[in-house]
Amino acid sequence: MVLQGINRLTTCCRMLKMAGKLRIGNYYSPSMLFSSRYRQIFRSWSSFSLVQPKQVSPAQPVPQGIPLPPYALTGVVPPSPITIEIKNEDQIDAMKRSCQLAYRILDSVKNYIKVGMTTEDIDQFVHDNIIQHGAYPSPLNYNGYPKSVCTSVNNVACHGIPDSRPLEDGDIINVDISVYYNGYHGDTSDTFLLGNVDETGQQLVETAKLCLQQAIDICGPNVPFRNIGKTISNLARAAGFTVNKMFLGHGIGSYFHGPPHIYHYRNWQMGHMRPGMTFTIEPVICEGTPDAEILEDGWTAISTDNKRSAQCEHTVLITSQGVEILTRP
Ligand SMILES: [Co+2]
């Protein structure tokens, strides 16, 4: 997932914090939102639990012999290609293998995830599974990210860091799996429902899945990239939801994130899809405002109105015939 304008945004947040004014528009700063009084009131009128970051334990070790991506030891991500890569058959084969592994890990999470376990339990499970396959969890130390998976619950829009919070009945949780395998990254995510999720939550998750599926359905050679955003925003709006503008899909290959940017909202992006391109589509569909802000950990994005969002993601390949989803069976 590519974060649009992260430097400008974090700088802006920092400046506001320094000025003691991290209160944007009509919204409240994260510290106010997480006060116990606020959460008490919130709980009384909402059918889901407001998530605030909890304790994060140290990252899992990676055993010797696992091939590492270039940033694994330093946290420094090397530049990605400048132009959109057209992959040859060998590269496509390698992409298929890494994406199939990402799919299998996500599928096993689906059966593993339960009310009462912590998101850190999910991190441990995902990490161990990926390592067992001789692969590396792509998020680990990517620009310093502290864990092997992203787990975004309820009002966390994206990039939630696994921590000590136990999952609750009625939570919705996005689990975003990325693996580095045979020199290539594969990236996929899904939002799971835990126990009794209210009707709006169920509709939100269904809409996110539908948005992803229909966006993929319109892909193919010579299709303008901007059609993806148009398709998703039309569907989301018809269902009464909005589309987050902060997080974009991305090209993917031997690099985790590269061109093209995939906008999930209406846009005037130039360019067309060509056979041999691989990229992700990963819309974040929101119950309320599409706005999110990044917490002090530098990663966790929460909705500014405390409402939920749901996200689903596939890595796709454009072929001469149409489009192939690489992260499914
Ligand atoms: Co992604």
Features:
single chain; 329 residues; alpha+beta; Creatine Amidinohydrolase; four-stranded antiparallel sheet; three-stranded antiparallel sheet; 7 helices; 16 strands; 20% strand; globular; binds cobalt (II) ion; metal-binding
Helices, strands, pairings?
Blueprint (H helix, E strand, L loop, with lengths): L1 E2 L2 H13 L11 H4 L2 H10 L43 H24 L6 H14 L3 E2 L12 E4 L2 E3 L13 E10 L2 E10 L5 H19 L8 H13 L3 E2 L3 E5 L6 E5 L15 E4 L2 E3 L5 E3 L6 E3 L5 E3 L2 E5 L4 E3 L4
Helix pairs in contact: 4-5, 6-7
The chain binds cobalt (II) ion (CO).
InterPro entries: Creatinase/aminopeptidase-like (IPR036005), Pept_M24 (IPR000994), Pept_M24_MAP (IPR001714), Pept_M24A_MAP1 (IPR002467)
Keywords: Aminopeptidase, Hydrolase, Metal-binding, Protease
Function: Cotranslationally removes the N-terminal methionine from nascent proteins. The N-terminal methionine is often cleaved when the second residue in the primary sequence is small and uncharged (Met-Ala-, Cys, Gly, Pro, Ser, Thr, or Val).
Structural notes for this entry:
The protein has 329 residues and is α+β, with helices and mostly antiparallel strands. It has one domain (2-50, 83-325): Alpha-Beta Complex (Creatine Amidinohydrolase). Helix content is 29%, strand content 20%. It has seven helices and 16 strands. It has helices at 6-18, 30-33, 36-45, 89-112, 119-132, 199-217, 226-238, and strands at residues 2-3, 136-137, 150-153, 156-158, 172-181, 184-193, 242-243, 247-251, 258-262, 278-281, 284-286, 292-294, 301-303, 309-311, 314-318, 323-325. It is globular, with a radius of gyration of 19 Å. It binds cobalt (II) ion (CO). Cobalt (II) ion (CO) binds at residues 1, 187, 250, 280, 282, 313.
